[in-house]
Amino acid sequence: QLFLTDEGETTAEQVRDLFQVLEKAFAANVPDPEALTVTLKQVLKALQ
Predict the structure, then answer these.
(1) Which of 6, 18, 25 has the alpha carbon at shortest distance from 42?
(2) What pLDDT digit, counting tens, does each position of 12-38 carry?
(3) Half-sphere exposure (CA, 13 Å, Cβ side) for 10?
């Protein structure tokens, strides 16, 4: 299990939502994909 906190289920759901948002953004040819990558790295770091 990646998420072992009491709120792990909620966290996992939020992560799935985040990835869906990122997928849509990339699919829409976001002008600054680098910014999305940086944001994603920050989110993943915060979840550790």
Answers:
(1) 18
(2) 777 888 888 878 877 776 677 687 788
(3) 3
